[in-house]
Amino acid sequence: MPRVTYIQADGQSQEVNLESGSSLMQGAVDNMIDGIVAECGGSCSCATCHCYIDADWVDKVEPAEEMETDLLDCVSEPKDNSRLSCQVKVSDALDGLVVHLPTTQF
Amino acid sequence: MAAKSRCIIIGASHAAAQLAPTLRQQGWTGSISMICNEYALPYHRPPLSKDFLAGTKTAEQILIRPAAVYKKCDVGITMGVTVAAIDRSNKQIMLEDGLALDYDKLVLTTGARVRKIDIPGVDLNGVFYLRDLNDAQQIKMSTGANKRAVIIGGGYIGLETASALRKIGMQVTVLEAMPRILQRVTAPEVAAFYSRIHKEEGVEIVAGVQAVSISGDKQVESVQCHDGTEYEADIVIIGVGVIPNTELAEQAGLEIDNGIVVDEYARTSDEDILAAGDCTSHYNPIYQRHLRLESVQNALDQASVAASTISGNLKAYSALPWFWSDQYDLKLQIAGLSQGYTDVVVRGDIGDSRSFAAFYMREGKLLAVDAVNRPQEFMFGKKLIMQGNQLDPGQLADESLPLKTLVAS
Predict the structure, then answer these.
(1) Which positions in chain A touch B44 (Cβ < 8 Å)?
(2) Alpha helices of A14-54 — where are they, by DSSP H?
């Protein structure tokens, strides 16, 4: 079970265990982590599960596909390490992953 | 908040799954009970006509939240129970088995049910509606490569189902009673686009035909139409819309007008009874009229508003409706409501490609956007609708001009 740390924009952090094969979005929803809205339930349609992958982990996460990068262009405060958390699958290789959450999803 | 306050949520829907944990997070210390008439935790409904039907997602994978979340939030869940009545004067609900439960706050998230059609043969084996997990499971057991499916109704549910069934190799015919598919919800240009795509994917779409009977000996064999045509079928799926579940509210004397009427704080005409989701009708300040929406967005947003109201932290509901529909490799994202549009501006090649955006305009302002494989048009379209500025149709159609540049900063 990979362990993932979600850090809110105000610095508060929560460390949780996720099921391997689950997504960063589902992990946040399952653990009631604020800041991930995920209206569409993970179908890469709404861009309300935006997050930033910690700089130390960016290279270890599979890159985004075109639909996701197009959506990421439209979120508020996009950065180079922006991802839609519904599209990032967690695995044991990502044990220890650190994810930062934006101030808003809208 | 008094520790003994009781909040009961009727209906285990998207709205309920949003509301119960949110209420707890907002500091509600009383009890929270969710009463579901199905034997399932709240699940995502949209995949039922998409990934679930096509077999790429299981029932477990479409749960909105795992059981552990409700447990952690101390939300009591009663499954397989129907509520018979609401007694407002005693602040109680009556279950079908006669049990009465007291409430301080009651939330109706009863959703909608399928509109049924009354034609001969509709009760034959192999004839289905699609709304619940159970419906989708039944359909799935009857599907199979090379079997023939006739879908009655060319709306989004019918077309998504057609796409999912093609994915598993079925032969699919869609029968639409109106002159074109998606008549109620899209412009003719967009309907023509979807007709073309379904044809390219091997689905037969027949518009302007009314199914008048279904034949077979116990098991469905064919569907007959008003013009004498007949379509052979191993299964028939009917998708002709939904009606809101307002009966409980109506019997309790709450105000109903095409849905349970709620104010911007999700309160019904009884301040201790709230409602959220497909079953409600609310005044939308953006479109300046009463709306009853059939959408996940509305269910989630209204549920969050309801949780805030119950927690005593009023937060008015004012959200732009949005919807999505996945068919084949097409991701349609719809922002806003197009009713009342006078002009349609198309950006991209709607005639030959699989990517475009249609902008629905009235008096030079943007009402709604249908964006197919165009997430940016969808996202910036939302902003343009909310800003409500006059827009130049030529600029909207001009692909060399990023839509972003039209959004006022």
Answers:
(1) 41
(2) 24-30
Going along chain B from its start, the domains and CATH numbers come out as 6-48+59-113+243-310 (3.50.50.60), 127-240 (3.50.50.60), 329-406 (3.30.390.30)
- Which of B315, B323, B324 is most worth mutating to test chain A (most A CB atoms within 10 A of its CB)? B324
The answer to whether B73 contacts A39, with C-beta atoms less than 8 Å apart, is no
Rounded-to-integer distance, Cα A83 and Cα A62, Å: 10
Cα–Cα distance for residue pair B6/A44, rounded to 1 Å? 37
**Tens of pLDDT, residues A57-100:** 999 999 999 989 989 988 889 999 999 999 999 999 999 999 99
- Residues on A contacting B at a C-beta cutoff of 8 Å: 29-32, 34, 37, 39-41, 43-47, 67, 70-71, 73-75
Domains of chain A as residue ranges with CATH: 3-100 (3.10.20.30)
Cα separation, B338 vs B325, in Å, equals 16
Q: How close B13 gets to chain A, by Cα (Å)?
A: 13
Distance CA B229, CA B209 (A): 9
Q: Do A29 and B64 touch (CB under 8 A)?
A: yes
pLDDT digits (tens, 9 = 90+) for B319-368: 999 999 999 999 999 999 999 999 999 999 999 999 999 999 999 999 99
